[in-house]
Fold this sequence. Notes:
CATH topology of the largest domain in chain A: Alpha-Beta Plaits
Structural class of chain B: alpha/beta
Strand order of the largest sheet of chain B: 7-6-5-8-9
Helix content of chain A: 10-25%
Helix content of chain B: 25-40%
CATH architecture of the largest domain in chain B: 3-Layer(aba) Sandwich
Order of helices and strands of chain B: HEHEHEHEHEHEHEHEHHEH
Strand content of chain B: 5-15%
Number of domains of chain B: 2
Mean pLDDT of chain B: 92
Number of helices of chain A: 2
Shape of chain B: globular
Oligomer: heterodimer
CATH architecture of the largest domain in chain A: 2-Layer Sandwich
Largest interface: A-B, 17 and 20 residues
Amino acid sequence: MKEIKVAPIKNGTVIDHIACGMAFKVLKVLGISDGEVDSTVSVLMHVPSKKMGWKDIVKVEDKELEQIEVDKISLVAPEASINIIRNYEVVEKMDVSLPDVAIGILKCGNPNCVTNANEPVETEFTLKSKDPIRLNCKYCDRELDDIVDHII
Amino acid sequence: MTKTFKGRDIISIHDFSREEIEHILKVSKDMIPAARGEKRNLSLEGKILSTIFFEPSTRTRLSFEAAMNRLGGSVVGFSDPEITSLKKGETLADTIRMVESYSDVIVLRHPMEGAAKLAADFTEKPVINAGDGAGQHPTQTLLDLFTIWTEKKDIEDKNVVLLGDLKYGRTVHSLAYALAMFGANLTFVAPEVLQMPKEVVEHVERQGGSYTSTNALEDAIESADVLYVTRIQKERFPDPAEYEKVAGMYRVDNEILTNASKDIIVMHPLPRVTEISPEVDTTEHAIYFKQAFNGVPVRMALLALIFDVVK
């Protein structure tokens, strides 16, 4: 086995098996691009993978992902696997699977959708297709374009 | 399988199966004598319908009010957003929670898509969508279907030409979907910039519907049973001259109708501007005012079904 070029992390989260080229979208989804994380983040891009040929990996130190973040990752990296690390050990594997219904994690792209008015309601999108990912707004029924840009 | 109509929200035509729509059409037909005032039907006596109109509307609001009154019920409501709580910044969710305590069924028109769905989330009372922005207007679709069904005795295999603004006209989107569900043959006639959107065409295809697109109205109406005309909105055209050209291309008059079968019916959701010449009004082809009347029995049928006074 080839040596991994970035050292294992002591505590935090490893997001593995991200489709090649999608690591930066994962960073965006997690708010890392916007400076919302105050620990070290390592990004490995174009890493050989038995399963996928090539893959990306993101390691976030001292941060354990919450379910809502995992749901968001599923929209940009549905093949990813997530490991929670404590003291260099994998203590939890979180499943990344596309939810049939995505609640409160996406903003509707239709500016005239009622969910974009000041109403006390969470957005809700129904999964119409997994590959490619197609989601329709429960309220205005429009299909969401540019999913990554609409993750809340 | 037909679901019960009791207490049901009427949000989108997509919520109904063909069997359910057929049932609504049959009940609507039974309502005609009472809709005309020839027979008394007080089955909704004591019930209150609220019309919550954040956008002006003439036909939809009046026909809902007429429908409720013909069934012995009462109506409260508003249709002027200028004087309502919306102006004061109240959310739709709050307005609905207030209105539900005053009425037994809520009829909502709102400028934003998805408003009726949202309203239904905030009340146990049935909500009827009377138009949400560019979204759905299911009772218009039902009355359009009812008009074709009563005038042509059937919908299946009928040749229906949809003409005009097929891109932005919300009534034609739902109607195309429903007609495809019933097995009608569709022809879309529109200027290049106002063609039927791709997602509506996909909906039609998923229903197994057959359709053709053309911009030659003369050819399209030769074999048509129904010509459904919609208004082309001037504001969609940045150049007024371009609008005049397009609007002129698709003006329905007695001359163009000489290309059509003598039994063709001409429908329009109204209001019309210049797309149908007034000379057509006095011909047997003109069904649009009857179509507007049909809003009453169809809405009576829906109310009676929702309140479970007919099965």
